[in-house]
Amino acid sequence: MSDKVTPRILQGFAEFLPKEQILFNSIYDKIRNIYEKYGFLPIDTPTIELSEVLLAKAGGETEKQIYRFNKGDNDLSLRFDLTVPLARYVAMHEPNLVFPFKRYHMSKVFRGERPQKGRFREFYQCDIDIIGAEELPLVYDAEIPAVICDVFKEINIGDFTIRINNRKILGGFFSSIGLSDKITDVLRIIDKLEKIGEDGVSKELAAIGADSETIAKILSFVSISGTTDDILAQLSALAESSVKDEMFAQGVSELSEVVGYMRGFNIPDKNFAIDLTIARGLDYYTGTVYETVLNDYKKLGSVCSGGRYENLTGYYTDKKMPGIGISIGLTRLFSQLLDAGIISADNSSLAKVLVVPMDKTVLPFALSTASTFRAEGIATDVYLCEKGMKQKMKYADRLGIPYAAIIGETEMQNGFISLKNMRQGGEQLTLSVQEAVNILK
Amino acid sequence: MSDKVTPRILQGFAEFLPKEQILFNSIYDKIRNIYEKYGFLPIDTPTIELSEVLLAKAGGETEKQIYRFNKGDNDLSLRFDLTVPLARYVAMHEPNLVFPFKRYHMSKVFRGERPQKGRFREFYQCDIDIIGAEELPLVYDAEIPAVICDVFKEINIGDFTIRINNRKILGGFFSSIGLSDKITDVLRIIDKLEKIGEDGVSKELAAIGADSETIAKILSFVSISGTTDDILAQLSALAESSVKDEMFAQGVSELSEVVGYMRGFNIPDKNFAIDLTIARGLDYYTGTVYETVLNDYKKLGSVCSGGRYENLTGYYTDKKMPGIGISIGLTRLFSQLLDAGIISADNSSLAKVLVVPMDKTVLPFALSTASTFRAEGIATDVYLCEKGMKQKMKYADRLGIPYAAIIGETEMQNGFISLKNMRQGGEQLTLSVQEAVNILK
Q1: Can you tell me whether residue A427 is helix, strand or coil?
Q2: Residue A117 gets which letter from DSSP?
Q3: What radius of gyration, in Å, describes the C-alpha atoms of chain B?
Q4: Pick from B261, B367, B384: CB nearest A137
Q5: Which of A51, B50, B198, B294 has the fewest Cβ atoms within 10 angstroms?
Q6: Contact A130, A264 (CB under 8 A)
Q7: Chain segment B191-235, per-residue pLDDT in tens
Q8: CB-closest option in B7, B96, B371 to A88
Q9: ipTM here
């Protein structure tokens, strides 16, 4: 008879083995380190909030995905993003915050979506946002991509491009051709340009009611290309000629100003590009919008997206709080990078050295050697089971620990250790503890 | 008409302002850093698990506190500790783990308790455990307090004492006097010794059925005191004379051996003490048990507790997995330390310097100065709103940023900055960027 419960986790939930977790944490730490280097402040909000508060804004698809339940008299929900908790936090703590309020939040969010490859029901988001009181200067729209640029340089997974656009350009352009209410449809069709060609796109545009003049304008708009400055020049020319729309002109002017600031922030031109097809959440963003792609892995889609919004806290307060921010979906990105072989956890190890006492008699020297290593800042594990040498080395090997400090009676009597390099052919050196410290550091 | 939702969080949930969060994170990081320095591996398990899996062991009080709910066809629960997820993780991933498996896990757990001061419904636990396959040598019982000792030295909140005991000593002793089934009652009574004196304790012991000879034995047992070695000597003497019990003798021998190893791990005698009244969870722990108190703040109770258990994974697998571990309830500890004024967040700041451009014309030099600082590893914020100097300084002051690097046109033309020490009377120096880097570092 077996009354055992099968140990398992739910479908759509991520869980890693320790080596993968070490690698995940190292990327998490790099992101956090850059966020902090730019002066973003940490916050950490409750995972569980009142549904009334958390779902003030939600509706439709989002609401169906919420983990929502009752406990006692309370209608509770798990947060599904870090933006709503930010809005609640800012509205609630406003008198005690300093504006512009620059915060980072790197934590788990929960969405009960239908499980599918690369989608998780519980995953880390790594968000930064800058919230202004009443207003927030445009130069902050350039600080966000500066942070992103440093993040992806630090993570070091190849070349990347921050694609930038301004919602006002899209809004103004589509308004000027009388298609304000069909922006989503048109963008979806434009997205197929490479696949179905200009003729295909024209047909589909006609099918949603665009006349031939409008179609020509759309095709001419999306064919704008060249360097960043070329594109800005073409947009300016359009604003002064065929596209008579105030919002369009404002978007072009904002985009141009932001590009100037981005260069001020030392973002290399090769790391960003204007992309007029980026819209992001249409209801939410009102100005600058970003997406980020890995140049060699464009199939992964945008790995970091965001933009500017007019009013963060409208559901909670009358005060106007414009902001700008971006989010990295880290669990998804990490699992994609692993699957694509762009990163590997094979050599992940936090411990630099495994101290291996040959037997119990040398234990005191082994333990004091480990203490010395740790006092020097060297992460040190000690193998304390009484097993054969083969078993002891297997432990170091399977954990990927790069060095083993073997201590037998001879070593102890001479105050030496045998330092074995586990990676480079097992080369073994007899050294003083201090000499070993120097190598391990 | 106001259709606004009042921004608020649930009672019993913790949320900190950024300065407090910075301080919280710094303590979290210190704990993590020590755990890693001892070779513990990180894991991160789903917050949501199947109730069948998570509650395999739970029952009674614990089960009432669980946040449990249905989503689709699944009966789900939020984890209420990190031990059950560890057991599930080890049982599930056993072939891919290396034993002894040393893991740390620092994350939130959820308990829908009645809210009371210092108790949270969502809080961080910082756990380490060492799990053996079939067996785990006693020397690991000394590694755990070695880690704890380094953690509390690193957190630096005053002197502390790791109280240590062995459940077998308690079990054996109470069995020898025929009170095995009343250990909890007796310990509860003994706990009042200081308050009600020997007479009071004797009366209460008599009330639960102890005869005078038994009471005398109990009083003599709890009066054992002195240095660690004194206590061990008295326990050994008892084991060879009046307490004829094999389990008692084994407990004394284990405790003695563990104390020896603890000294091997360089734990100073002043940082630990044998305390025969510590029992911890009676069903769960089977050998060594620990509690940790801050010497100057004993009222806070144990800030770090744990012990050895015979079988971690019994609900999931037939394989025997003994282990030893401890847990720090960080949210509670942090909030207690803050409330007691032992720590303060007043001077918390991640950013070392705020770059303050006087106006838009100096923006390029200001941004490039900030880039230089960051490239040198200096966390740097830039104030980018067009406000008066007073407002700009107020931003630095309220955030507690120690330095302001003020840049005006004169500074820009000479390639200099004015570095203002925000803490020491606002002293202001005109320096080259490199000189400023040297000071800020």
Answers
A1: coil
A2: T
A3: 28
A4: B384
A5: B198
A6: no
A7: 788 789 899 999 999 999 899 999 999 998 988 999 999 999 999
A8: B7
A9: 0.95
